[in-house]
Amino acid sequence: MKGVRTVHARRRGARGVAGVIAVALVIAAGVVIISVALAIYGEATPESVHPSAMHTVVYTPYNFTGPSLASLFDLKPRQLTAQLGLIQVPSRLVRGIPGQELVAFQLPPGYPYNYSVVMVSGGRVAVYLVGSSGDKLFYEAEHPFKTAVLSRVYSSKPVAEGLGLAVIKLYKASVPGPQGSIITIYPFQAYYEALWYVEGYLVVNTTAAGWFYVDYGNEVAGAVPIGGSWSGAGWAECTADAPGLVGGVGTAAAYTVTHGGYALDDCPVTVTIANWPFVGVDAWGHILLPTSFPGSKSIAIACGCYGQR
Q1: Tell me: the pLDDT tens digits for 51-86?
Q2: Residue 20 — φ and ψ, nearest 5°?
Q3: Quick one: which of 86, 100, 127, 92 has its CA closest to 221?
Q4: Nearest to residue 287, comparing CAs of 20, 32, 8?
Q5: CA of 165: how far to CAs of 8, 60, 131, 146, 160, in Å?
Q6: Burial class (CB in 10 A: 0-12, 13-18, 19+), 135
Q7: Distances from the Cα of 30 to the Cα of 33, 234, 290, 294, angstroms
Q8: pLDDT in tens, 160-213
Q9: CA angle 98, 102, 104 (to 5 degrees)
C-alpha cells in the first residue's frame, strides 16, 4: 500500500475530567465495545519469535459489555501499562530503519543508546535501540501471540449483503528495562473488514486496520494505519484513501478509518457502493467498532465510476 503515515505522540500528563468525559461521549455515539527474556543488553543476538501454535478465540455476537484486551487475551492491566517513559524520537534517528514507528521509550541510564523504538511493517514487530551513535536490532516477532475473530451480519434478507469482520492480533515484544531487566510489551493489530455481497458473491471489501499501542488507563500512545480496499470482477474501485487516516493518538481513544467508493462496470445504469469502516481502541483496551454497517448502496443513471460523482 502507498502513502503509509505514522502517527506517534509524546506522553502526556494527566488530563482534565471534562476532556475525558467529552471523549467518552464521542466514542459512545459511534462505536461499540467488542464482545468479544530474550537477552540482557550487551552483544546478545536478538531472537526471532515463531510460535508453533497461535491461540485463536472466536466470538460471534456484539454487545455493550464485551471484554477488553486484558480479558480477551487473559492479560493483567499492569501488563498493558507503559513501565518506561514514552518519548518522541527525532525522525533522523529512525529514518534508515525498516518499517513505521509505532511507539518509543526512553532507555534507562547506563545504556549506550538513548531510546528503544518499536517499528512495525506488515506482520512484523521489531524493537531497535537507537541513539546518536546509530541503531541496533534488539528483538523481533513475525507472528501474533494470540488472535481473536468476530463477525456480524447486518441484514435480515435470506442472502446477507453487509458483513462486518473484526480481527485482533496481539503481539509480544521485549524492550530493555532498568538494571538490565527485560520488559514485555503488547502492541497489536486491529482490523475491521466491511464486506459487500451481491447475489451471494463478494464484490467489495474495504478494510480499516491499524497497529496500536495502549498505555493502560492513560492514553493510546501510538497508531499506524494499514487499511486497504478491493473490488471484485465487474466492479471498479473509484475512490479510496487506503491505508487510511488516524485520529486520537495521545488521547483516551484512537482509531483509523478507510473510505472506499465503488461502482458496477455498467452503462447507462450502474450500482454504486460507498464504505467508511473504522476500528480503534480506548486507553483501557476496549476495541471500538461501528454500531451499524459502515456502508451504503444505490443505483445511479451513469456509467461506472461516474455514478459516484
Answers
A1: 333 444 444 344 333 457 887 788 898 999 998 899
A2: -65, -40
A3: 86
A4: 32
A5: 27, 10, 41, 17, 13
A6: middle
A7: 10, 33, 6, 11
A8: 688 888 889 999 999 998 888 899 999 999 999 999 988 888 999 999 999 999
A9: 100
User: In this predicted structure, which of 60-74, 133-147, 260-274 has the lowest mean pLDDT?
Assistant: 60-74
CB 280 within 8 A of CB 248: yes
Cβ proximity of 165 and 206 under 8 Å? no
Phi and psi at 181, nearest 5°, equal -80, 170
CB 204 within 8 A of CB 195: yes
- Alpha-carbon torsion 23, 28, 29, 33, what sign? positive
* Closest C-alpha among 105, 127, 100 to residue 211: 100
Q: For residues 101 and 52, what is the distance between their CA atoms, to the nearest angstrom?
A: 27
CA 140 → CA 55, 89, 106, 124, 160, distances in Å?
19, 19, 19, 7, 41
* Residue 192 near residue 289 (C-beta atoms within 8 A): yes
Q: In this structure, which amino acid lies at residue 252?
A: A
Query: Taking the domains of the chain in order of start, what are their residue ranges?
Result: 7-308
Burial 235-250 (b: 16+ CB within 10 A, else e): bbbbebbbbbbbebbb
Alpha carbons within 13 angstroms on the beta-carbon side of residue 301 total 0
CA separation for the pair 285, 243 (Å, rounded)? 23
CA dist., res. 35 & res. 174, Å (int): 29
What's CA 174's distance to the chain center, in Å? 19
